[in-house]
Amino acid sequence: MKTRIITGVWAGAIFLGLLYLGGLPFLAFMAILTVIGYTELVKMRQLSYSSIPVLLFGIGTLLPFIRVYELTSEQTVVSGLSPLAWGMLIILVGLFWTVFSKNVFTFDDVAFLLLTSVYVGVGFASFAFIRLLDNGLTLSLLIILLIWFTDSGAYFVGKRFGKTKLWPAISPNKTIEGAAGGILLAVLLGVIFEAITPTIGYAEVVLLALIVAVVGQLGDLVQSAYKRHYGVKDAGSLLPGHGGILDRFDSMLIVFTVLITLGIFS
């Protein structure tokens, strides 16, 4: 417990400090977390970090950050081919490698690396994009608080009133009562936040809270599913007492991706 608290203090201080700072430092921080998260999943799959496809798809995880920077700074970084075109080239090289390796590196491995690079890269880049908006600090803090309150509500309500298992095959400790409690607490937090710091309007904040609470819990279940599939307790060990980067950002990756995909803040 002591290790967990110490880690939480220093890691939280770094994260919140860079979140407050914003700009290129936060964009770079998200890019670093992307690479770390990517390596955590590659390790679960037991692929070699030094193989050409793993390195190329690792670079591919950063392509969404180029697009975020171009959109928020109105500057062109990549001339000629777009980030999407570069991504397609990486996919093709991965497919060609199945031939060069005589199928030691398989089509399934290509699919895994593609999904991993999109899941991690787009997730963290979406977070960076929202933070770089004009009111990005307030929006980011609101979303993070909604995720945290959802998790806390689900835990405490589930522990006190939980009887009906939510998805025992994936996460045996989660309950429907806890999930509902997390959603209600998130909505309450959103309304209070809007009353103290008017941001997007009451109707909008309730809708946002519902989306974040539901999607955030699904994001947590997604990570539970793939960790169970690969037979690991934690995604990594970078944060003593907390696991890896993906263990701390599982809900955020899905939530920020969904918010950008739905165009909530466009």
Q: Helical percent range?
A: over 70%
Shape: globular
The order of strands across the largest sheet is 1-2
Number of helices: 10
Catalogue the unreliable spans.
Answer: none
Q: What is the distance, rounded to the nearest whole angstrom, between the alpha carbons of the first and last residues?
A: 41 Å
Percent strand equals under 5%
User: Would you tell me the structural class of the helices and strands?
Assistant: mainly alpha
As a whole number of angstroms, the C-alpha radius of gyration is 19 Å
* Residue-averaged pLDDT: 90
* Total domain modules: 2
The beta-strand count equals: 2
Order of helices and strands: HHHHHHHEEHHH
Most strands sheet: 2 strands, antiparallel
Kindly describe this structure:
With 266 residues, the protein is mainly alpha-helical. It has two domains: 23-131, no CATH class; 135-266, no CATH class. It contains ten helices and two strands. The protein has helices at residues 2-21, 23-45, 52-60, 63-73, 83-100, 107-131, 136-161, 176-196, 202-230, 245-261, and strands spanning 165-167, 171-175. Strands 1-2 form a two-stranded antiparallel sheet. The longest helix has 29 residues, at 202-230. The protein is globular and about 55 Å long.
In short:
This protein has about 270 residues and is mainly α. It has helices at about 1-20, 25-45, 50-60, 65-75, 85-100, 105-130, 135-160, 175-195, 200-230, 245-260, and strands at about 165, 170-175.
